[in-house]
Amino acid sequence: MNNHAAHPTILARKRKSLLLLLSSVPALLLFALYTSYQSHSHPSVYWTPSTPGRPHGLGSALLKSRSISRRALSNEPGFNRAASASSTSFPSALRLFAGSILGASLLACSLSSSSTILLDDQPPLLKGGLRTIPAREILTHSTEESCWVVIEGQVWDVTEYLSHHPGGKAVILSQAGHDATDLFKPIHPAGTLASKLPPSCLVGTVDTATGYQLLAGNNEGEVTEEDRAERRLSLPSVDKIINLNEFETMAQRVLGEDSKAYKFYASVAEDGVAFKHNMSSFSYLRFRPRILVPVEEVSTETSLLPSISPSPLPIFISPASRAGTGHPDAEKTLVRGAAVRNIVHCISSAASLGLGEILAERRRVGGKAPVWFQLYVGRNKKEVEQKVRDAVEGGCTAIVLTVDLACQGKREDDRTKLGLGQKTSWLLPFDGNLDWTYIPWLQSLAPGVPLLLKGVATPEDAVLAYKAGCSGVILSNHGGRQLDHAPPPLETLIRIRQQHPELLAKDLEFSVMIDGGVRRGSDVIKALCLGARGVGLGRPFLFAQTAYAEQGVVRAIEILEQELQVTMRLIGASSIADLKPEMVGLLDGLLAKDI
Questions:
Q1: Choosing from 188, 327, 478, 485, which is the catalytic residue?
Q2: What is the dihedral sign for C-alpha 577, 582, 585, 589?
Q3: How large is the average pLDDT for residues 260-289?
Q4: What are 414-423's pLDDT values in tens digits?
Q5: In whole angstroms, what is the distance from residue 69 CA to residue 65 CA?
Q6: From the centroid of its chain, how far is CA 320?
Q7: Cα separation of 453 and 514, whole Å?
Q8: What is the pTM of this model?
Q9: Domain 127-214 is classified in which CATH homologous superfamily?
Q10: Phi-psi region of 346 (alpha: psi -120 to 50; beta: other; left: phi over 0)
Q11: Residue 212 — very low, low, confident or very high, per pLDDT cuts 50/70/90?
Q12: What angle is formed at CA 467 by the lines to CA 465 and CA 469, rounded to 5 degrees?
């Protein structure tokens, strides 16, 4: 990654500029003397300013073109032929001579202060000393040995960063030598490149006249944000949506079923077995409703964590990444929707927007509900410390550590759609050596702030989390995107109920929650009957905000609230505290048998 000032092409141009300067000055002086003589002897030819305030003589031409070789003098604005000899005099010739000398001086100053000159069809310098780079040059930097990408008009040399990219180098190489803005912007906070790369990696800005040549291929099925906006206008009004599954249908209509954005949201690990089991798991529970119970008034209020204020609903927005993939307002839509209905929003480490920007939006809209921060752990502990510090100082009331990401799951449909090759590395720069000794260190970064572990899939690990002093666990298999054939969260909850019911005691300072496969308020009620303190939803809120922005988020919460109330009334529970394990029965087929 060479600084543009030391680029061989730039140095060659500087040498050309110096030679041009040395060879031009004598010629300019001779031309000035000759013109002075002609002006005095043949007054039918002279220079006058065509615009008030512009310099006389050759200086006018040089100021405009910076190179007399760029156009014929007879075409230069300000060059006139006069029929009257009385319109010039010897003093005007002196002025012309002075103007010519001034022009030579201006040329010398211009050349000495610039790093390049317009000698061929290469674009000139841009503001700030950055070079304007034509598409044909950028296209040549498309290999692992020299990799440039264009992001919002800026050309970055990312060669040395390839091996450090959290998503693997294949993602970047698929866009090498091209404009990657559409792929990059929705999934990265503003300022990501500037914060990760040294200034020398910014090699210039793309030539707008040729930039169209850099649009990367593999865009089949893609639509622009303008097209998406038009598609949103054709959707039925948000109040016509009656269940969460319809939000996915609307999101497909906006994004395109075969688009990269939809594939990213819907992608699952390998054969999708874990995801399918998540979605079907709740059908293995049957309600055992009680009758003749007063339920005209029901309360859905509960405490997700003992240390935080009660939530009006036993649900929260799970940390789902890259909201900007679906809507240009990205996580702001989730913040606004959560603020309207006062429910917990867990912010993802992999958000499209920076944490500071998300928290600033929460303050702007006056959000009062607790906000949590989900943490991915990389190998750099200083970065982890800074993230936790920023989250706590920004007002996050809990840290949610994701523990099922020692490496990334094999999400084939997602990666195939992104056009990646077969050499994609699945071992990304997460800390694969994370162990239980990490927990007290992380707790020391934010004393008194609850720490939850997300991604727990066995009763044994739930017990270890409790013994390690965690405030709770979120049972999850990462939405079926990590380990295929991992148990659905509901199965893990049932096993905890069977093997360690003490972890589910309502007076215990420890919360067990689940996240995965929930699409109905009745699903939430089943989990609460088994002892869960709360239930998280990710994809449904992403689909809702994709189609309807924050109005979709609010509507999704309203739908869940209505279904919660209906289910509670029909099973005979007037409050969350009335929900008990005996209100549900388990059918055969959900739990895997021990071998």
A1: 478
A2: positive
A3: 94
A4: 654 444 333 3
A5: 9
A6: 12
A7: 11
A8: 0.69
A9: Cytochrome b5-like heme/steroid binding domain (3.10.120.10)
A10: beta
A11: low
A12: 75
